[in-house]
Amino acid sequence: MTSRIAPLLEPYLTLPEDASLVVLTGILGASTNWLVLRYLSSYLLPPSSPPPPPRPTAPPTEADPAPPAAVLLVSFLRDLPFWRDGASRLGLDLEAAGRQGRFAFVDGLRGLFPGAVAAAPGAAAAWQSALAGASLAHVGRVLHEAADRLREGDGDAARTRAVVLVVDQLDFLLAAAGGAEEEGVGDVSALRVRELLMGLREKVHATVLTLSADEPLIAAQATPLEQEHANLVLGLAHEAELVLSLRLLDTGTAKDVSGVVRITRGGQWSTRKMDEREYLYHAGGDGGVRVFVRGQ
């Protein structure tokens, strides 16, 4: 089992404040997959070090401790086996978390296009669901239902549990729906995708997004799709509390460095104290990631 969370990133992977938005951006060659897995691990696994026992002299309190967080993972580019295998390397069993009512998965790729091969009937567990089209009305309905099931769960604990929405590659929905011929799909815009996301954010405690930020998609804007993509990414970065950006080294590739992770405040930064940082990272073949400062 590889190391769960790089110590330098721990302050940024804790449960965000209510209604927070965290944006993770990557480029070709510097994927956010390993960051998403660390967020899942941070929210679904118990702390590496158990909390200290209460003081014997502390007066009893009537309030029960808050139940652990739950995660709704919506993935538009990667299937459940990909996330399950990556999480298992960090000691996280997503299927067990799903059975416990703390994890739900929505497959946003397999059935997104007409004619796609669907899963066999009855094959998916109750905590798994899949999109069957690219229209925003359908996408919104499926995601709202998944969020409701996770919030309601079984018993009072689920209703008070903090649910974190994690959406992997939301910009793929914009690209796929914008070019589709399905009825009610082709008029998808960055604004409508952001409106869909805003409705979902009202149901959950916090939201974590991954987006592509390659220079041709953000700076060039030579086509309407590139313009909409840039509007989506820049608009969400402005709404975010925290932005973690991955990129390659400016000087090229290196054997012991995979890229750079830059941590900055978003446009909606709260009063919570946080230092903006820039670290190097190296992703190993076993799923382990080392994060370090320059010169180490």
UniProtKB/TrEMBL annotation:
Record InterPro entries: ELP6, P-loop_NTPase
Source domain of life: Eukaryota
GO CC annotation: elongator holoenzyme complex
Pathway field: tRNA modification; 5-methoxycarbonylmethyl-2-thiouridine-tRNA biosynthesis
Entry's transmembrane regions: none
UniProt record, GO biological process: tRNA wobble uridine modification
Gene3D superfamilies: P-loop containing nucleotide triphosphate hydrolases
PANTHER family referenced in this protein's UniProt entry, alphabetically: ELONGATOR COMPLEX PROTEIN 6 (PTHR16184:SF6)
Family, per entry: Belongs to the ELP6 family.
Protein name (database record): Elongator complex protein 6
Organism annotation: Phyllachora maydis
